[in-house]
Give the backbone structure.
Amino acid sequence: MNAARGNGPLCRVLALPHVLIVMTAPVLPLRLQHALALPATRDERARRNFTAGLRSFVLHELAEGLRREPAASEAGLADARQMHAALRPTLAFQFYSALRVAAQDMVYQTVRSGVERHRDQLVQRASRLATEAPLGSLRLDEALPLPRSVTAVDIHLMPGSYHSEQGADDLAAGAVYDNRLAVSSFGLMGRNLDDIGQSMARFV
């Protein structure tokens, strides 16, 4: 991976066999400001910056390029299923899909090291906040069986899915999800990823 500055914006150039990808770099991960936000090392921030740019490129430029594929403009494609069936055999779609999966996996790889490093601190900090600044309470039924649709696969490729716990009061799954959204949401969910919850609370 090389970075170069020309007359335009800073570009990241990713060289693959027979492929050259040039990504503009306006997309940067959020730096969360809430009480359970985790610090990141310089290397972790660099990896997250690259991954956010790559994911943005895949979901925008590459996805837009699929619209120009001849298979996408064939007459008689009535719905998304037919469009998917027409595009799936094409090299462009296969490259897009492979890179999208790789970028999604990279999102988690860039945040897991920080979460693992601060796992015990997260538990201690959450316990202290619950005592010093309680906002309410939530009691879960530990006997409630989790549906197989949650446990059978890693949803959104998140390792361990959303439910895995490695010990008492483990917050790692929530921290991984929180920090991965900081990398992958492009700022669309607010500075602390709480726009949806805040909007619902204010409406109620």
Q: What stands out?
A: The CA atoms of residues 29 and 183 lie 4 Å apart. Residues 91-117 form the longest helix (27 residues).
